[in-house]
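Before relying on records like the one below, remember that each one covers exactly one chain. Contacts with other chains, cofactors or solvent are not represented anywhere in the record.
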Amino acid sequence: MRKKESIPVNLISYFLFICFLGIMIFHVNSLSGKPENNHQKNNDDKKYNTGVTVSPAHIKFNVDLGKIKTKKVKVTNYTSVTKKFQIKYNDFDMSLDGKSSFLEAGESKYSLSKFLSISPTFIELDPGSSAEIAVTVQLPNDPEANVASWGVLMVEEAKERQRLDPGNESGETVAFGITPTIVFGVWLYQNPPNVENTNVEIQKFSYNIDEENETKFLFLELENTGDGISFCKAYVELTNLGTGEQYFLGGKKYTILPGYRRTFIFELLPDIPKGKYSAVGVVDYFSNTKLVAAEMDLNIE
């Protein structure tokens, strides 16, 4: 009977080491053959998930009689799908608190539509692409056109209506559907060179307390008595007469249409020290020569 030979232990260890080394080499090669650039992928995901941008948000024209001026609106699609947009125009009205209500083109007395042209009125944007919309204001050589006018350019996403499934073959039900879209507004203002756009008067400056909510406010009511659109900044300076410490409220930019009033509300900080104060309400036209101001004394308790 032939004796069975045993395999040396060191030979088995060598064989296992060679197998392990081969597996590791295969794994490294498979990873390095087609590397995935995670940094680039993350950048692409970030780039195409920003949304849609429309700029600028406001356009100001100063076109004279018999002249023409064109400005551009840029629309960029930062999503991962193709987007379609319709370009429209609306008039708008404004309330005392600055809220806008939209009107049909030509419905407003101060409609810009009669002097305005837009091109194109429809755009289609692939992911990452942009398009420009030309907004042109042309005034005839007619004194009646020498007035301020305004409106809003609407960039509205165009989506096909989806087929509605009533879910009932009997036909006794009514199906309703909503197609969500996004709409951007670009505010358009035309001030001819001859109009007076710095005639804003302070009609009322007052201090009020809301006892129920324990809040304190300063109210500044302004009226544009000129015939031009006014672009200004409204703010309040508070000075503690006992300590000399000053507080600054507001400072945003506002638009006041001719013949319109607007009321601005400035809320006082809840922890403002008690005492006697001097309050100055200011309307700034971004000019070194003209400011409108009103002053009053008040006691904060």
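Residues 9-33 form the longest helix (25 residues).
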